[in-house]
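Here is one such tokenized protein:
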Amino acid sequence: MTRKYTLKRRAEQQAETRRRIVEAAIDLHGSVGPAATTFSLVAERAGVQRHTLYAHFPDERSLLRACSSTHMEANPLPSPESWREIAEPRHRTESALLAIYEWYGRNEGLVASVLRDAEHHPPTREAVETSIGLYFEACQEVLGQGLDGSQRSMLQLALSFFTWRTLVREAGLQPSEAVNAMVGSIHGAA
């Protein structure tokens, strides 16, 4: 009986160590960015030795995947499938952008750091392409039904984090005002 208990306790300790490592890495990704997040920084922030970190994550890509999935589980993007039920394209786009812009507002620091680093850091780019990239492809598919090429281009612009940041943070629009501006640019003035 003691052996079984010991194994269970060890598994719990390993899971806790893994959780601390991932949380430390996510915190660093949001502050210094994934490209500047070294294993030494993660180990220090998590309170573990580097060899312990490597035992859980043998390379940067495995740590990035764990961080991405952990963050997305805790902060899921709104489901594009729920928008299929909205028959009117303008209302469908408005509903989607409001939900996405709300998510951007809650996750701004981390998203900004990750997208910035994705432009020059291949492991971050891969993580973005396999998570957020696939998500926005699904959004384009659901929201782009019946749109012409120009409208699809405006939809792509509207879905961009950088568009949200420009309209809301830099221009000072309320999220609903930013959504209305983008819906008008996609579907024309109401």
In short: The chain has a mean pLDDT of 93.
